[in-house]
Amino acid sequence: MAKITFPPMGHYSPAFATLLRELGHEVILPNPPTKETLSLGTLYGPEFACLPLKICLGSYVESLERGAEVIVTSGGVGPCRAGLYGTVQREILKSLGYRFEMIVLEPPRRHPLELLKALHRLDAFRRAPWQLVNTAFKTWEMIKALDRLERELHRIRPREAEKGSAEAVYKRGCRAIGAQDTVAGIRKAAEEALADMRRVPLDPSCDPIKIGIVGEIYVLLEPAANLKIEKTLGELGAEVDRSIFLTGWTRENVVREGDNQTAREAAYPYLCEMIGGHGQDTVGHTVMYARQGYDGVIQLAPFTCIPEIVAKGVLPSVSRDLDIPIISFFLDEQTGEAGFRTRLEAFVDLLVRRREQRRLAG
Amino acid sequence: MSVESAATVKSGPRIGIPRALWYYTFYPFWRAFFNGLGASLIPSSPTTKAILDAGILETVSEACVPIKVFLGHVNDLREKWQRGEIDMLFLPRYVSWQGGLIFCPKFLGLPDMVRYAFEALPPLLTVRIDRRTFMGLWRACDELRSRLGATRSALVSAYRSALRAQAAHERRLRENWRPTESIVGVRRPRRIPTENARRPLRLAVLGYPYLVYDEYVSLGVLDKLESMGVEVVTAETLQAQKKQLRHPEQKDLFWHYSEMVKTVGYYALSPTNGDIDGVIHVTAFACGPDAMVNKLLELEARKEGAKPFLSLGLDEETGEAGCLTRLEAFVDMLRRNPHRVVR
Ligand code: SF4
Ligand code: SF4
To answer: What DSSP state is assigned to residue A68?
Structure first.
């Protein structure tokens, strides 16, 4: 039984911890990334690596210092860099003198053997098949529950009468869900948390604008990477819809790799090639938000993120053709919270004024 | 240049091709192919400040220099078209040329970026090139043929001569010709002075062809080294050592050019190869893949006995003087003490 850790992944960490614990490992839960985490990653990582690589690298260093011996992470086959994080991070950490094992879970379609070997290393096959199925099912249920609760949070937050009340309910809910170890328990905890959330007192006069958030998956999912953009926007009175949730993404990319018909189809006239990462989804979701009458779209991406740069290249045309304001943020370790907030405020103001003008006009 | 235009056919459509990115690797293929179909292929002018500036203006600011250069060349061809010098613009979508390897995602999205960056563009001749699919290249060529309205029978011979031209090009690159020389078919004589009867310093200069061989963007790094009396070998040449190139424990990079640079880099750095004295990695600032490649090489260079290593980052603001100083320092250091890493 080894002490195991994994990359920090927003609020999903408890779900992954449960999974590994059920396989009989001792889990070193990654700390929520902080400024120091990112500094470590920036110090040791390649200068122009994308933000996710740096955050994860920093987090591994912290977890290794806390006694982790094994790192589990996901692989990939490109076209983007995420598939190489494992290789590069392993080499860097080795050169820093850490002794550990890195287990990379490759997607089943391309490297079935590698995946089986990795699962074997994780002792997965010492358990009865039905136990495995049960564990997988439970993890999935937990992720689904966390996603439902977060969606509800995004809806309620801009409307809450007292600032911060929805967030408090959400945090409590996450803890309750993470503490469950049966499927029934998870479902019950989720229902209760959702009910609590609906009881949060609302401000009836509130009429939030609607903003869609598109971009690269990691910066969308990890609040440490996106400087808690959803919270900031919620406080500024905007209802946020994030285009990527793990439940949606896993369904599309792991089970039926890359077969996300709708977003791809929507992207088609603008970006006709699967360019890796979430470049095509970024464009596709932007088109979809525009058609659904959203007030604006925000693109979030790590600095030097390849697919998102391509996407940014075509977004101005989407904005013009479908008449929807779009703003792009390329985030790196130098992005400051205050400056970011100011730019978000300006964008929200612009959207509010634009909506007013349109209402007046007709 | 003169040889190029002499080789082109006078009648038939005139097709513009940007002198950037895949140009250095694949131009001979497309020249032979289009000539075989009765069309002529006209490259944009060599990179200049004006071309780069135009590219910077038209590209998302976060993009890497090579992409900005590419858009600058597209702009150059656009102007040629407005002056009536070309009829259309060749803009293939390079997805994969060799099984298992794909091009950088920016290559994949390039035609889309170009289409949305410019208001008025010449008619585009685009095609998706993916050799992972069955007869991918042949089918791409067939599509181009039908777009040009040429006959099927012309296709067979055009395709064959294109493959032959490409093979010859690659052979010449392995023999240490520069792509620019191979394209015109004339090799410039190299006179490397021998130092007191010892063999000259031999450096591997590794990087993507569109950086290393673009004299403007690379600040003429190859010529500068040669004028210092250094013998230069590039990644394409070292690839001839294919058998010795594999690194046992590494997962392959999956990008076409990056994989080449990485494997060749490991080979060039390894203590066991006897004839390379040092390695220079030419890399573009803000290049996604290079962030990985450069780190891997740098870590390799720190290992016991590895060859001295210099990483030379280029962007639109890199000054020629600073670059020259770094090269000179590296070469001097090697001449004095051949066992140290410079970063
Ligand atoms: S999609 Fe962007 S963030 Fe993800 S690996 Fe690629 S470059 Fe990095
Ligand atoms: S490999 Fe690097 S330099 Fe080349 S296009 Fe991609 S990001 Fe730009």
So the answer is: -
Looking at 3.40.50.1000, 3.90.550.10, 1.10.10.10, 3.40.50.11890, the CATH number of the domain B12-174 comes to 3.40.50.11890
**CB contact (8 A) between residue B109 and residue A279:** yes
| Alpha carbon of B289 to ligand 2 centroid (Å) | 7
For A224, counting Cβ atoms within 10 Å of its Cβ (0-12 exposed, 13-18 middle, 19+ buried), the class is buried
CB pairs below 8 Å between A and B: how many? 119
Cβ(B149)–Cβ(B125) under 8 Å? Answer: no
Q: Give residue B109 CA to ligand 2 midpoint distance, Å.
A: 12
**How far, in Å, from the CA of B213 to the mean position of ligand 1?**
27
Report the top-level CATH class of A3-125.
alpha beta
* Euclidean distance between the first and the last CA atom of chain A, given in angstroms as a whole number: 67
**The CATH fold of domain A208-362:** Rossmann fold (3.40.50)
**What is the model's pLDDT at position A269?**
76
Q: Are the C-beta atoms of B122 and B87 separated by less than 8 Å?
A: yes
Q: Are A276 and A308 in contact (CB under 8 A)?
A: no
- Domain at B189-335, CATH from 3.40.50.11900, 1.20.120.530, 3.40.50.11420, 3.90.1640.10: 3.40.50.11900
| Residue B38: strand, helix, or coil | coil
Hey, of A309, A327, A332, which one would you mutate to test binding to chain B, going by the most B CBs within 10 A of its CB? A309
User: What stretch of H or E contains B15?
Assistant: strand B14-17
Q: Which two tokens stand for residue B180?
A: 């620019």
Range B195-218 average pLDDT? 85
Owner of token pair 């010492």: A126
Q: How many residues does chain A have?
A: 362
Nearest CA to ligand 2 atom 5: B106
Distance CA B215, CA B217 (A): 6
Interchain pair B112, A272: CB under 8 A: yes
Is residue B42 within 8 A of residue B17, CB to CB? The reply is: yes
Predicted structure pTM score: 0.85
From CA B287, how far away is CA A79, in angstroms rounded?
A: 14
Averaged pLDDT, groups of 10, chain A, 362 residues long? 85 85 87 90 88 91 93 69 79 91 75 70 72 83 89 89 90 90 91 92 88 90 88 90 71 40 72 74 88 92 87 90 93 85 94 90 76
- Strands A70-74 and A26-27, sheet pairing: unpaired
